[in-house]
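FAQ: What does a ligand-bound record look like?

Like this one, built around flavin mononucleotide:
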Amino acid sequence: MKKFLSIFATMFVGMGLIFSLYGCEPSAEKQCGMPPPNMQKNENSKQTKSFLDLAKERYSVRSYSNKPIEEEKLIKILESARVAPTAMNKQPQFIYVLKSEEALKKAQQVTKSTFGAPIILLVCYDDDRVGKPDFEPGYNFGEMDASIACCHMMFEAWELGIGSVWVRGFNSDNVAKVFNLPKNMKPVCMLPIGYPADDSKPSKLHTTKRELKDTYKEL
Ligand SMILES: Cc1cc2nc3c(=O)[nH]c(=O)nc-3n(C[C@H](O)[C@H](O)[C@H](O)COP(=O)(O)O)c2cc1C
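The answer part, i.e. the structure of the complex:
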């Protein structure tokens, strides 16, 4: 019995030593009680959310509250655009943060879709940087790269409790002129962002989606 107890005690101390040396591995999630990052709580609803839940929940916000966006949240949103994939990793995306009264007024001159948002992100691509494949002369990846970056920002914002609406209701030449953009900066879209107003709700279009079966085909 004595021998059995001493073996048990040695094993117990040994395991404690291993845990203290290596800490808590992701695979030991159950022991640690730490959910994986994609299952962590979302600030919008304080519920555990998968990406698909987040994607379904997001809607175009067209009514904003006066609550200003915290600087650290804005930086996170911009960071999500920085890490977006880009063709040939050329990273041509460039974002103008329209925040001043003057810049927001200019935005109103070029599009109807500003919705009183406290910040509008004007997403461009840099034509001097963009990937231009030799297999298709005249084509470049700019619109695609900028759109992916914008998509990242839309979902990062939503995860932080901040609403947005994708806007392309403008003439690119007008935008370039009003904001005096350098010739190489090509406007792709705008993303008004802000905390949704209390009365904000999804438009009818949000729920008017085609059936899944009609949107893909196995070949
Ligand atoms: C490329 C693109 C351009 C858009 N342009 C505008 C726009 O100029 N103004 C606007 O209010 N919404 C615009 N939208 C938002 C769409 O109307 C909206 O995403 C769609 O109706 C589905 O609604 P939901 O985003 O609430 O799901 C645009 C969306 C995309 C993807």
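Follow-up question: can I read anything off the structure? Yes, for example: The domain at 51-202 is CATH 3.40.109.10 (NADH Oxidase).
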